């Protein structure tokens, strides 16, 4: 298979595995959200972002704020993000239409709109990995903390926002603005309720919104949604600025929080999240430092969790699969952005995948 066809196939597999299938169902009429990106975004937030920004357009953005041109700041920032070429996701905006068409044709697209419609109607998964959406929340701004809406343990899943990929994909497939509006308004309400922590290590006092594990997973989910939405009319300049403000705050948090033990699978999640932010938003002032730190810790965690024979420290197939998928996704993103894992790192990951496949499909042979 020619290299470009193989690469396209790999890209589409990644996209298909990250989203659920999509079909069309009628949406209920919704009460208007109170919070929108333009009502939440403030001058101080823009200044915060500018202080942490090292992109080639910094002089223009500085002039915009100095002249009290907040709208121009947002427009200039969005224009830059739409045209930049210094960071690559698994797909480019120009490839999304063909990739989704391929997935519709060969995989099917029935489940994702069900998930997206549930989100529009404020019906969410009640726990991570739930097979259906059963947590019904009222119309209007979501209370992301859950302190007045029942069991707060359910809000662990809520604050990961895994369905944002589904909302973004449903919007790309249908053009229905109910999906893009829901996504950007959820961004607004979450941002309004969850300012950056002064001390990252107080995160347990600010759970579930700033739980270290959930924030790590959310970082990856947000980058998927952003890469699907950027360049569309449903992604406004204000939403773009607000997103980048919170993404910078998330990077600072993941870098500063005391890490999980390296033999804990949650450490992989933490450094994957930081790697994604550093790789996809190199304009952040600390991105290079984050990138170096994330890779160092990610590889150290991999070495402690995957044994030389490929078996995983925790041995449970579910955990092993999560660890391997996270590492494979990170390796591909790194590769697409010019960071190549060395042979020792690549070989250990390959050994882990091979052992995992043998565990799920045993051939009767003892491990070496």
Structure description:
- By secondary structure, the chain is mostly helical.
- The protein has a domain at 3-199.
- The protein is built from 16 helices and 2 strands.
- The chain has helices at 3-18, 37-40, 43-51, 58-66, 70-83, 93-106, 111-120, 155-158, 164-174, 177-193, 212-229, 237-256, 265-280, 287-305, 317-336, 343-360, and strands at 123-125, 133-136.
- The chain is globular and about 70 Å long.
- The two termini are 33 Å apart.
- Residues 20-33 have low confidence and may be disordered.
Strand order of the largest sheet: 1-2
Structural class: mainly alpha
**In percent, how helical is the residue content?**
55-70%
Tell me, what's the shape?
globular
- Overall strand count: 2
Low-pLDDT sequence parts? 20-33
Order of helices and strands: HHHHHHHEEHHHHHHHHH
Through-space gap between termini: 33 Å
CA gyration radius, whole angstroms: 20 Å
Calculate the mean pLDDT score and round it.
Answer: 90
The major β-sheet equals:
2 strands, antiparallel
DSSP helix count? 16
Strand composition percent: under 5%
Topology record:
Elements: H1 3-18, H2 37-40, H3 43-51, H4 58-66, H5 70-83, H6 93-106, H7 111-120, E1 123-125, E2 133-136, H8 155-158, H9 164-174, H10 177-193, H11 212-229, H12 237-256, H13 265-280, H14 287-305, H15 317-336, H16 343-360
Antiparallel strand pairs: 1-2
Helix pairs in contact: 1-6, 3-4, 3-12, 4-5, 5-12, 7-9, 9-10, 9-11, 10-12, 11-12, 11-13, 12-13, 13-14, 13-15, 15-16
